[in-house]
């Protein structure tokens, strides 16, 4: 969520506020939580759960209708497995992925109340945002391209925010050990930096028929999402 001042000459991204694990905040409080923003600065706030929270679009709109919204999306099947992997590290006794994903294993009925499944129905969540914000206020960043072409995706982000393209190819290198792109020289440091251990973890092996069933489930929602955004993310 990016709060930009109305006349936009911004050239600087300044502050980030991560509320991932907190309850959604009402608009009046939301604004109070934001740091003061000088002209020419952009305040960024990062709360992944806002995209899927029913009340969030109205609240963000009431706070500022000029807010720009950036959503990173990846193949919902991989996303579900990634989500499961993260929960598994916190609760090692968790039932298997397929136990949680299916309401009925025999019929293959998917359990859409399981958050790891529900979050990936992007078209449904986007509908809620489009009641308040025009599509032009939203940027969808491809999680896959963020790995294969981080500078390209960051280029789109900078353009969307009306920033000069400062972050380019020369800021990234591919780290063979991590298996992901990393920053060559983060701000204020002379040493390269990759994302932490909790990003890019190996996923458990999920039976292929389970993944196949899940892929079938998501297909219509993905197609709807491509139509709504005008962007084919290539997940099918
Ligand atoms: N450069 C780089 N380094 C490491 N990981 C990368 C990178 N770019 C994207 N990814 C993918 O980001 C996934 C983690 O994202 P999260 O959704 O957990 O991030 S966040 O908590 O919302 O910030 C994480 O998912 P997992 O692979 O399931 O761990 C990665 O695949």
UniProtKB/TrEMBL annotation:
Q: What class of enzyme is it?
A: transferase
The UniProt record lists the Sulfotransferase domain at 63-219
**What positions does the entry give for 3'-phosphoadenylyl sulfate binding?**
74, 82, 199-203
Keyword DNA-binding assigned to the entry: answer is: no
Native organism is Notothenia coriiceps
Which Enzyme Commission numbers does its entry carry?
2.8.2.-
UniProt-listed InterPro entries? NST/OST, P-loop_NTPase, Sulfotransferase_dom
Q: Name one GO molecular function term.
A: [heparan sulfate]-glucosamine 3-sulfotransferase activity
**Keyword Glycoprotein assigned:** yes
> From which domain of life does this come?
Eukaryota
- One Pfam family from the UniProt entry? Sulfotransfer_1
Listed name of the protein: Sulfotransferase
